[in-house]
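Blinded run. Sample ID left blank on purpose so nobody reads anything into the name before looking at the predicted structure. Input follows.
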Amino acid sequence: MNTLSASQLLLLSTRLLEGAGVPLAEAQIVAEELVGANMVGHDSHGVMRLMQYCKMIDDGVIRPGAKVEVLKEEAAYLLVDGNFNFGQVIASEALRLLMEKGRQAGTATAMIRNSNHVGRLGSYTDRAANEGFAALMAVNAPGPGGVAPFGGIDRKLGTNPISMAAPRSGGNFVLDMTSSATAEGKLRVAFQKGEQVPPGMMIDGHGNPSTNPGDYYHEPLGAILPLGGPLLGHKGSGLSVMIDTLCGIVSGNGVCRSDLPPGCNGVWMYVIDIERFTPREQFDAMIETYAQHIKSSRTMAGFDEILLPGEIELRRRRQREVEGVPIPDETWRQINELAARLGVNLAVL
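Blinded prediction complete.
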């Protein structure tokens, strides 16, 4: 297994994307988001996506350089058409515009249609929290998806993630979760490593419980279970349906449209300027009091401490800043294969 630093991964990702015809400014945005995901331990949304993205460029699904358009706007809302550029490029621009409106109006909403895969949602809500906002972001993925609805065995829902964040000194609260039992990318990581996944995450193509990620990718195709698994999956399933509705149908990205390419995201972003509602000094004091209240709980057997949303990612970032990012052998093989195809020399990294 290879281990690379953040700077090496940024250079690698930027060069490969440029080699695939992506303008430098856009390649840098996408590379930063991918490497940022690796740095906080979300390898499912990291550089392993480069091969997928370059294929999507080849297939005409991702359209580098496409203009991000504001179709409608008023004081506190935006409707953005990404015209199928990279999701990271579209979402970053939409967030920038949204925070400007949120600062003026106190709160603002953005809907995004015709966007490709936006990456790790927590990156965007964390960024908003750094600017003094409480933030929410949710994403739906039209098409058959990879998740079975509660009680079903067919792929009908997307993994439909949701993220919420709020500022906290020393590390923001950042919730970033799928409405499914796991993200598809985590199955892909396990599949590339030749590992099993924990029980309760997926079923095979016949509806039987499975821990083999290969059952998800091979015919007959398996499915990911909704959050809560076989026992409480009605909660994740219901949440996923509402994300489809709010992010997909409201944005016009649809779940009932048949003309959208695979991986197309409908996005909902919402920001609240905290200072407009609660003086920031008071907010910060209450957040710290609340954090200590939660952490003061006695721990169950097998647990050393209570962790708050975002703490694992913050610790993993600090660790990987020192130790680097481990890249599975299969991912590294695919990266080198892609580099050879694009004529990109990785030996100088």
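Unblinding after everyone has recorded impressions. The first strand starts at residue 2 and ends at 4.
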